[in-house]
C-alpha cells in the first residue's frame, strides 16, 4: 500500500519535485547568463586597459612633438614651423580619437551584468507574487 497516495501527499510531492527541477533549471540559466556577461565584461576591461596604455603613450608623444613644435616656431625658416605644427596636430587628433574611444568603452562598462540583474529582479518579483 502506498501511504503517500493514501494521505494525498503524492500530488504535493510531485509539485514539489517539479518546482525544485524548475528552480534548478532557472538557476543554471542565470549562472550561464552571468558567465556570458562576465566574459563580455572582461573584454571591456581589457579594452580599457589597452586604450589606457595607448592613451598614456600617445600623451607622452604628443607632448614631446608639441614641445618640438614650439621650439621650431622660433627657428629661421617657415617650412620647419609648418611641418612641426602639422605633426603636432596629427598627434593631437590621434590622441583625441583614442580618448573618445576610451570614454565610449568606459560608458559601456558602467552597465555591467544588466541582463543578469534584470532576470534576477523578474525572478524575485515572481516569487513575491506567489507568496
| Helix percent band | over 70%
Question: Distance between the terminal alpha carbons, to the nearest Å?
Answer: 34 Å
Number of domains: 1
Structural class computed from helices and strand pairing: mainly alpha
List the helices and strands and how they pair.
Layout: H1 3-7, H2 9-73, H3 78-109, H4 114-130
Transmembrane segments: 45-71, 83-103
Pfam family, one: Phage_holin_3_6
Keywords: Membrane, Transmembrane, Transmembrane helix
Kindly describe this structure:
With 131 residues, this protein is an all-alpha fold. It has one domain (3-130). It is built from four helices and no strands. It has helices at 3-7, 9-73, 78-109, 114-130. The longest helix is centred in the N-terminal third of the chain and has 65 residues, at 9-73. The chain is rod-shaped. 3% of the residues are buried.
